[in-house]
Specification:
The protein is α+β, with helices and mostly antiparallel strands. It has a single domain, classed as Nuclear Transport Factor 2, Chain: A, CATH 3.10.450. It is 27% helix and 43% strand. It has 5 helices and 6 strands. A 6-stranded mixed beta sheet has the order 2-1-6-5-4-3. It is globular, with a radius of gyration of 15 Å.
Length: 139
Amino acid sequence: MSNSRIVSNDPKTEKEIRAFFDEFIQAYPKENIQRYLDLFQQDENLIMIGTAQKWIGWESYKDAPAKERNQFHNISLSYEWLKVNSYGDIGWLAAKVNVIMHYEVREVKIPARLTGVVKKINGKWKIVQGHISVSNKGR
């Protein structure tokens, strides 16, 4: 089987996934928790992994964003680059992101790596697996 059969990279799908990722970046500060939570597959198949934590299934993950928001009041994400691949209604992505934390008058940018798998469910892209980890070298 050739690689072209495994990865289709349909331009329309890539555009949709990039727009979905932009929505994720905008929703990340979690000012509206429901907006953020609506981006995820909400069943036992969801897998989320952070630098020091993991959540298997929606029931395990659903309260984590609110806890994070309460712990880190002024936090947001930006990204420097994003690579998207897809096949049908499945997409996978990798990005170099910055976790931006605000302390009083100071802003701190922490480089991180983000990977994820998204699936189109009932006409909407949803995160089915995600991983973010702090980068020591910012590469």
